[in-house]
Design a protein that fits this description.
117 residues, alpha+beta, 50s Ribosomal Protein L17, Chain: A, three-stranded antiparallel beta sheet, 4 helices, 49% helix
C-alpha cells in the first residue's frame, strides 16, 4: 500500500528519479517554459514551487540550499533574477497548461509547464 507516499515513481529507481526531476526543474528555471508529460509536470511543479519559496528569503543559506539542489547556473538565475520578481507573491509561481497533443510513442498526454510572470 502507498500510505503517505506523495511522489510518483515513474518506473525509475530513486537516484534516476531525483536526477530526472532535478533536470526538469533546472530546465524550467533556465528556459522559463518546458513541454513534458502531465505527471512529470505535476511533480516538477511541486519541486520548483518549494525552491522558489526558499530563494525568496534572499540570504546566504537559501543560496547554498539552491546550489545543492540545482546546477549552479540554474541556482544563480533563480536566486538573482527570478525570486525577486515573486517577492510579493504568496505562492502559485508555476502554471500547468494541458495540451491536446499526445506523445507518438505511448500516447501519454503532454503539458506545458511555465513560470507565472
Amino acid at each position: 500500500m502507498r500510505h503517505l507516499k506523495k511522489t510518483k515513481k515513474f518506473h525509475r529507481k530513486t537516484d534516476q528519479r531525483k536526477a530526472l526531476l532535478r533536470s526538469l526543474a533546472a530546465n524550467l528555471i533556465l528556459k522559463e517554459k518546458i513541454k513534458t508529460t502531465l505527471p512529470k509536470a505535476k511533480e516538477t511543479k511541486k519541486i520548483t514551487e518549494k525552491l522558489i519559496t526558499i530563494a525568496k528569503k534572499q540570504n546566504l543559506s537559501a543560496l547554498r540550499k539552491l546550489k545543492q539542489a540545482l546546477p549552479e547556473k540554474a541556482a544563480n538565475k533563480l536566486y538573482y533574477e527570478i525570486a525577486p520578481l515573486y517577492k510579493n507573491r504568496a505562492g502559485g509561481y508555476t502554471r500547468i497548461i494541458k495540451t491536446s497533443q499526445r506523445k507518438i510513442k505511448d500516447a501519454s498526454s503532454l503539458a506545458i509547464l511555465e513560470l507565472v510572470k
